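Q: Give me the 3D complex with NAP.
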Amino acid sequence: MHSTIFRDDLLLGKVALVTGGGTGIGAAIARELAQLGATVVIASRKIEKIEPAAKGLSAETGREVFGELLNLRDRDSIGTCVTRILERHGRIDILVNNAGGQFFAPAEMITPNGWDAVVATNLTGTWTLTRAVADQWMLNNGGSILNIPMLTTGAFAGMAHSVAARAGVEAMTRTLAVEWSPRGIRVNCIAPGYVASSGLRNYPKGLGLVEKMKSIVPMKRLATCEEVAWAAVFLSGPAGAYVTGQTWAVDGGKSLWGDYWPIQDPPDMQPVVLPYESWETPEE
Ligand SMILES: NC(=O)c1ccc[n+]([C@@H]2O[C@H](COP(=O)([O-])OP(=O)(O)OC[C@H]3O[C@@H](n4cnc5c(N)ncnc54)[C@H](OP(=O)(O)O)[C@@H]3O)[C@@H](O)[C@H]2O)c1
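A: Here is the predicted complex, encoded as structure tokens.
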């Protein structure tokens, strides 16, 4: 298979780690990177996801894609994963922090444990893996880090825990971009809007919303995983050579318009009264 956007062999000789690369958006990014010649390692918690995905991506791209176990909520697992990749492949040029997860819940239903779990995966896990890759490779050799949070510029009702964690990732991205620029490391984010990924099946309660989602996106459709992957490759590869500390929304205009969280009008909603100054004469 060939990329429909980028030149074959664009990333030949590069090694990329894509977390959550066995499913959805991560698999599309892994596929695109492998098609461009990179040696790709996909990593997540479940061997039953990683093994078939590594095999499938290898068969599709004609280039061996490797699988590793990784639990972002376990510091030892993170350290071990990075060490193994460096032992086996010698370098990590591109880190795509795509893995993440949350559950859909109104804020008043989020328990302390639920909050801690979501922050641990999406913020602390991203930080810990980023530091491990930086410490063991990038601080001395340069590289490119791409984080995949979510839209954080407005409210994300039902996702208070995750949007807080993801906004933390964006702030961290800007700061690392400045601190690590002299080390030859670029750090960016892609904030997907609504993406038609297999991951949406993890939200049984939210599945009814999927059809509604189309209506509140100016482009009137969900993104494909490939559309996110193209932007990911642009930013993390040579096309993004002078871009760092940025968040690109790949959202069909979603962040500009529309929402899915109905807020009922109260029965006693007051009419709007436009005030007059003391020297003005009210109109009848
Ligand atoms: N789809 C959308 O509309 C959308 C919108 C905005 C943002 N995003 C974000 O984009 C990313 C990819 O989304 P997706 O739709 O492709 O979802 P997905 O298929 O559910 O991908 C999530 C991946 O993260 C891995 N993962 C979860 N917890 C982990 C942990 N503790 N350690 C290591 N890996 C872990 C999962 O694999 P294991 O179960 O094997 O660990 C899975 O491969 C996620 O961060 C998601 O929140 C998605």
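A quick observation: The longest helix spans residues 112-141.
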